[in-house]
UniProtKB/TrEMBL annotation:
<keyword id="KW-1015">Disulfide bond</keyword>
<keyword id="KW-0719">Serine esterase</keyword>
<dbReference type="InterPro" id="IPR029058">
    <property type="entry name" value="AB_hydrolase_fold"/>
</dbReference>
<dbReference type="GO" id="GO:0052689">
    <property type="term" value="F:carboxylic ester hydrolase activity"/>
</dbReference>
<protein>
    <recommendedName>
        <fullName>Carboxylic ester hydrolase</fullName>
        <ecNumber>3.1.1.-</ecNumber>
    </recommendedName>
</protein>
<keyword id="KW-0325">Glycoprotein</keyword>
<dbReference type="InterPro" id="IPR002018">
    <property type="entry name" value="CarbesteraseB"/>
</dbReference>
<feature type="domain" description="Carboxylesterase type B">
    <location>
        <begin position="28"/>
        <end position="527"/>
    </location>
</feature>
<comment type="similarity">
    <text>Belongs to the type-B carboxylesterase/lipase family.</text>
</comment>
<keyword id="KW-0378">Hydrolase</keyword>
<dbReference type="InterPro" id="IPR019826">
    <property type="entry name" value="Carboxylesterase_B_AS"/>
</dbReference>
<dbReference type="Pfam" id="PF00135">
    <property type="entry name" value="COesterase"/>
</dbReference>
Length: 559
């Protein structure tokens, strides 16, 4: 599938490039064990020509009998693969649906893109490799959300890719027939592809850094806990996401799977029969008839996400990551993690039309908005709801209430889990952990791109300066924005090179076990290491009767 002329035009425009005032009448090609791959040339945000290979299959199409199954490695090909096409996985409608490529989303979508800071990639280049896992609540998005336009001004190989989303990627019946985590298993197979083939693109398979934002950041962190990911990467960067944030682990998976089956007229008494039935339902019908899962007052912001699996041949993770972290059962490689100063404001804005309804029905709806419906005993839910309301809300006008919701959602969804995970991993990992708080107010931020009049440094604003806006070809940044982009790329590429993040302005010191030490990023010339005993209201949340982290429940049978 071509992007309706986009790929053909790009290929023709980039087929002739100029180097040392001479014309190169060719396009980049690489020879892999799978077959020959032909790409094309693109220009970075600041004018550098680089090689692009878009739409390389890394798995067999997950369609028909392979729907809801673990991914299978792609077969080789005999002809030259023209890698000039961007793919998007089938998904529910979202903010990204206005993008042209989302009009052609499809179930056959397990493709990756490779971008090389060279016009003639060579096995001898040995460049550091950065692999981005896209975010989007495990529900939306595509690999190209993380554009190479800025990163390819640096000497790296950059990889992004698609993985199955929502029901197609994270449906689970909590048994060996449909254990779940197919989206994570897609990611793992993509990383295996990188190990096997990235050298032919000029990348160093012994220097692979994972990075991701939001659900992508949590995905990166999940690979620290999967034995199958050991050796596939050497450093990781989690922006606004990790495994201890409450939305990262799906609860009530079996109940949701049965609801899906009912909506699609499939029986669920026997898992085999249910899965066989779901495999023949048209994919558009699956997306359409399960839209109710994506209403925040019915389910959480992230209804389908990774699960703790039963043990099987292809299992990704079989114990809760908190327990694994507690015992030091992790992949011991450096980890850099960062959140923004106003994470919750973005999600509060998404809920803005429902805030009055949530207020009126607080005891009932807060469990969904704050994602504790499946981890609090029914008899304790009212008490938990009232304690949260008392802690966060006093009298105030509607505008003040909006900001209080922003603080509440930010703490629940991001801040507390960020602090706990950073401190625990720093204590139990054999490799350093670096934590950061991003508080730079850019002229180009997600609120302005979307058209919202919001103040603060929102979820994804750091990502925007690293990758650019998915809604614009090249963001026209101000000088301060450009300087911050360069500083963030300094941090990213230095960490990808040797595991030590740094800029010209500051050396990022690792988290210590006795106090929470993090880098506060206010501006290019205002970055400093900060130490706090209480970064978040961690004690308040840990004292609530919520069965997660140290009080984690492995099954719902105890309810």
């Amino acid at each position: 599938m071509l992007l309706r002329g986009h790929s053909r035009v790009s290929l023709l425009l980039n087929a002739i490039t100029f180097k040392n005032n001479s014309v190169i009448n060719c396009v980049p090609e690489v020879h892999t064990k799978l077959g020959k791959i032909r790409g094309y040339y693109k220009k970075s945000a600041y004018g550098r020509t680089f090689s692009a290979f878009e739409g390389i299959p890394y798995a067999k199409p997950p369609i028909g009998d392979l729907r809801f199954e673990a991914p299978q490695p792609v077969s080789s090909w005999s002809t030259t693969l023209n890698a000039t096409t961007l793919y998007v996985c089938k998904q529910v409608k979202s903010l990204y649906s206005i993008l042209e490529r989302y009009h052609y989303d499809q179930e056959d979508c397990l493709y990756l893109n490779v971008y090389v800071a060279s016009e003639q990639p060579s096995e001898n280049d040995n460049l550091d490799v950065i692999v981005n896992i896209h975010g989007g609540s495990f529900t939306y998005g595509d690999g190209y959300m993380s554009s190479p336009n800025y990163i390819l001004d640096r000497d790296v190989v950059f990889v992004n890719f698609n993985y199955r989303l929502g029901i197609l990627g994270f449906l689970s019946t909590e048994d060996e027939i449909l254990p779940g985590n197919n989206g994570l298993k897609d990611q793992q197979l993509a990383l295996k592809w990188v190990q096997a083939h990235i050298k032919q693109f000029g990348g160093n398979p012994k220097s692979v850094t994972l990075m991701g934002n939001s659900a992508g950041g949590a995905s990166v962190h999940f690979h620290y806990f999967s034995p199958g990911s050991e050796g596939l990467f050497h450093r990781g960067i989690s922006l606004s996401g990790n495994v201890l944030m409450p939305w990262a682990i799906q609860e009530g998976a079996l109940e949701k799977a049965r609801k899906v089956a009912t909506l699609l007229n499939c029986t669920y008494q026997k898992t085999n029969d249910m899965v066989d039935c779901l495999k023949v339902v048209p994919v558009d019908e699956i997306i359409l008839k399960t839209a109710a899962f994506h209403v925040a007052t019915n389910y959480s912001f992230v209804p389908f996400a990774p699960v703790v699996e039963v043990k099987s041949e292809n299992s990704f993770i079989t114990r809760h990551p908190y327990k694994l972290l507690e015992e030091g059962e992790i992949n011991h490689v450096p980890w850099l993690t960062c959140i923004t100063s106003d994470e919750g404001v973005f999600f509060t804005a998404l809920l803005s039309s429902m805030l009055e309804e949530i207020d009126r029905n607080w005891n009932e709806l807060s469990q969904f908005v704050l994602d504790y419906a499946y981890v609090v005993h029914d008899g304790d839910k009212r008490d938990v709801a009232q304690k949260i309301k008392s802690f966060y809300f006093q009298s105030g006008d509607l505008q003040d209430k909006f900001h209080k919701y922003g603080k509440l959602i930010g703490d629940r969804y991001f801040n507390v889990g960020f602090e706990i995970a950073s401190l625990m991993q720093a204590k139990l990992s054999k490799s350093p952990v670096y934590a950061g708080l991003y508080s730079f107010s850019a002229s180009k931020c997600f609120a302005k791109v979307i058209g919202w009049n919001l103040k603060g440094v929102l979820h994804g604003d750091d990502f925007l300066l690293i990758h650019g806006s998915p809604f614009e070809t090249y963001p026209h940044n101000t000088k301060p924005d450009q300087l911050m982009t360069n500083s963030l790329l300094d941090i990213l590429t230095s960490f990808a090179s040797d595991g030590n993040p740094r800029t010209k302005q500051v050396i990022w010191e690792p988290v210590t076990t006795d106090t929470f030490r993090y880098l506060l990023i206010r501006d290019v010339d205002n970055m400093n290491m900060t130490m706090e005993d209480k970064f978040s209201p961690r004690e308040f949340w840990e004292n609530l009767d919520i069965m997660e982290n140290d009080k984690v429940m492995l099954t719902r049978d105890e309810f």
